[in-house]
Amino acid sequence: MKSYSYNPPKLKPSTKRIEVTDEEGNVACTFQRVYPNSVVKVCNYMFDIDWSAQVNVYSTDGHLVFQCKKTAPWLGRPEYIVQRCNTKDFFRVTYTTWQTLAPEFKITYQNQEYILKKDMLDWAKFLQGEEELARWKMKPTEWFKTRLEIEAACPIQEPEFFVALFQCIFYIGN
C-alpha distances in angstroms, 93 versus 80, 96, 105, 121, 139? Predict the structure, then answer.
């Protein structure tokens, strides 16, 4: 199992670049929130409306590796797309439950399906069938320090993917 941690920005609309470190304290990647334009950014700061959200995750040498974008329709739940930037492959993330406090998502990539399940005050779990492949948790008691764990059996070993996914869905949220 690989473990990573980071301290997210103190304010949700922040565009500050944040470092993600591995268990030895080495920087594994960085991420930041990105806005499509200044109008969206100002509206987000003033009204706390997150109809558009994007998290970019960069390699240690500064290259864009993954992007997670939230698209919100006029009616219904938003959809998220996590894109691997070097190949343009994407993972589609949709709600399977409408529960706000403990949502569940279906992630599809080519012919694979994963489930992302958040339990109240517990880990967000990335599952394939019943097998837990990765988990993410933010601890309010430790100034929102965030921990990511990826099991060796997980077919997606890039922490950048999980940082983009979890940060966009569970930190920025809907």
Answer: 5, 9, 6, 22, 24
Place of tokens 């990826």: 150
* CA dist., res. 80 & res. 57, Å (int): 15
**Residue 86, amino acid:** N
The answer for residues whose C-beta is within 8 angstroms of residue 24's C-beta and 6 or more apart is: none
Burial tier of 105 (Cβ tally within 10 Å: 0-12, 13-18, 19+): buried
Distance between CA atoms of residues 113 and 103, nearest Å: 17
Q: Which residue has the tokens 């930190």?
A: 171
Residues 4-19: pLDDT tens digits? 999 999 888 899 999 9
Share above pLDDT 90 across residues of the chain, in percent, rounded to a whole number: 62
Residue pair 116/125 in contact (Cβ under 8 Å)? The answer is: yes
One DSSP character per residue, 122-156 reads: S-EEEEETTEEEEEEEEEGGGTTEEEEEE-TT-S-
CA distance 134 to 30: 19
